[in-house]
Design goal:
Immunoglobulin_dom, flat, 62 strands, 9% helix, disulfide bond, Immunoglobulin-like, mainly beta, Ig-like domain-containing protein, 6 helices, 889 residues
Length: 889
Amino acid sequence: MTMDKCVVTVVFGLLMLGGCLTRVVKVPTGPLIRVAGQPVSIRCDVNDYSGPSEQDFDWMISKTVKGDTKIKIISTFDTSYSDPSFSQRVASGDISVVRLADNEVELKVAEVKPQDAGFYWCQTPSTDSVISGNYDAQVQLIVIPNTLEVSPQTLPPEVPEGNDITLSCNVTRALTYSTYLSVTWSMKSGVTSEDILTFGPEGEVVTGGKFARRYTDGGIRLVPGKNGLFELVISRVTTLDTGTYTCSGTEWTHENDNWIKIVESTKEMGTVKVIPTGQSLSVIASSSSSPSSTSLLLSPGNTLTLLCSVSADNLPALALEVTWLANDRDLITMERSGVVIANTSSSGAQGKRGQASLERTGAGQYRLGVRGVSGEDGGEYTCRVRAFIDKGGKSAGGGGRWHMAAEKKSSPVVVKVSEIKPNFTLTLAPVQNPQMTAEPTELACNVTNIVHLPVGGRLGVAWEHTPLPGDDPQASQPVGSLDGNGNLLPGPTYSDRLKSGVISLSRVQPNTFKLQILRTQEIDMGQYVCTVSAWTLSSQGDMVKTVEYKSSPVTVRWDAKHPSLNVVAKRIREASAGGSTFEMSCTVSTQNLGEAGYSVLIQSQESLGSTVRTIMTLSPDNVVQHGGATDPNRRDSLVLTKSGPAEFRFRLAGVQLTDRGFYWCDITAWTKQQPGQAWTKATSAESNKVRIDFQENGPSFSIAIQSDDTSVYPSKTAKMKCSLSVSGSSPTTDDLAYEVRWFFTRLRGGQTTTQVASVNRFGVVKTEIRNSSSEISIERTDAHTYLMNIFSTQDSDSGEYYCVATPWYLSASTGAWTQAGELTSSRVFLTVQFAVWDSLKLPLLYGASASLGVGLFSLVLGLVCAQCCCRNTSHIPRSRSKLSDMEMD
């Protein structure tokens, strides 16, 4: 009895040990409500299991919750698993299973049928050492018919701008199970479609990004009705609302605190074109005394009265901003709020400050009045109207955000004021005409025969320059002007040169004006014209331009000789061996170029025709910069200096094998029009090429990789050795160093190669971040051998490994460290096997121990029973004497 209790205890302990992991198979909480003809997907996952990480799944269906009769649907393990009733749908892809992870799959039905309703069972075959937990789970699928109906009302094809649009849509469904509805209105303009508003499924409202502000302002209103009728009102439409409108109804179900869309229907409501206000807007300017006349003659001191008549089909819905313009300059404006603003910032007719008035005399009627006109009030008068529509909705009360719907300008009314204007004669002549670049230019504009210039009248001048034919552009450019008060107004192109004094405009006498250019450039060649204007004092005390005359053009031109540049490169110091110094000079010679600055580019290439690299640069202001091809660790070995007025020197110390190739200078000449201004490029040229070519017989290297064992069990340590060997003129150990990197290509999960660890030539080790739980260490076992250890290997460590090394050696001839070529080893394959013995050895050990104990106990018990319990005490042995007697007989 004692031995029996011991065996029971051992077996119970084994069961308790195996029960530490309890398998859990899960599917979504049901029931799942879906619509016939729609796609369905059901997920299934398993957790807390033992065995391989990748689990297989079997899917079955039953019509009852108990699953008395289950029909096989599909399996991830057995392709012939499907029942004949499902095999054709599985083969066609209507039913499929998709693996989402090692422990998760998804059953997908492309078009669910009513007969697909039932209880779906997800089962995982056992890979556990001890049976525990659940190995299947079931969820109910309910398939309902598609009863969703969307019935929109057709929209009118055209709507005037500023009117409202009502989008009516009826969305219903037969309520057989607990489902919910939502309705969405959308608009498509061109190829872009955007949702306007969505209502539901819980009664919430979601607006599209472009319509959120209008909904907040009340420009878009939702009006829920009865029996599935929903209306969306868009107020005060604009041309941006032109497009095709659609209505979408969606049926939802609520599962696991999430809303699931089960069916959707979209219907087009129609295409709406918003007729812009500009098509019917009309603006007419006329004289109050002669409405049909387009011109008007006044005497000085009279009152000018003009009418602006505005009409439109939707005039009551518009807010108008009316502006009168004189000679295309704003004179006076009545804003849409009715506030009148007079423009007093300009000269001309606007100079009559306080004399212009504007009033609204009726619907669409605006009257302009200008009292006490003078000569400066003559010109073309036009009426400009801007029509605005309030984009704020009715609920917002209007007055929110305004949209300019149209803008129109009337035909001009010509107003003439009879007066006698000054008259004079102009003569433009050169005082200094340049014969070459950088010489001065001086032009004089003389005014003669001046008549009818009133007392207090003054003269102003404006200079224009037109480039020679063939230059770009050829349109005339204003150089600058002097108004009647003598104020200098520079042209946009010549503003900097006028402010710096390179170009000057002056009045040397009351009737003589001069243009001077201190250093004439080629861009200054062309034709020059002076325009002289007469300025008189207005009744308001302002200087007003009354008349202007333009001179005949004068041409400034010379035979321009283009500058040229020649660069010669010469070797100063030869690099005969690695580690020595290379030096070259570049000398510049010029023609037709005065004082200039130079920028230098030192460029190189390994061979003729190969990629050009920029080593260093020197700006005209003697600023040195290193090119992108320069190793940051070697910048102290590079020197570029200006050794003379037109000579530059480049020095490279400690040359290496990688420095061999061709070197030359690319030099650009720059000029300045005057000190302090930016450099202007004149010309550029490249020098001849100087070559660095030396030979050095260094050591040769080889690399190999080997692994103690290419197949290991999980949690064991894998070792890989990267060995390097040296031949030829081998340096000593202290004169040799390696940079070693290890790379890995994963067996599963793609063929991407990643770096896992590295050690530089100074012995600094760096390991990369890994997704695996294993750890890596690097150690150098001798001068030429590096060992990589992978501790606690996992299945994800299976794959190909190789190492890449870059040797560095100290050159005996130059005493400089030299980099040898990169070496790549062969590849070794590491396999992390499934630990079958590790998972079974403990149960086998306990079983063997129990069996041996029971056997020994049985043997001892048998011996004790034989000695103690089975002895026969009634047996008396025969005597020896009687035996002898019987023999004698």
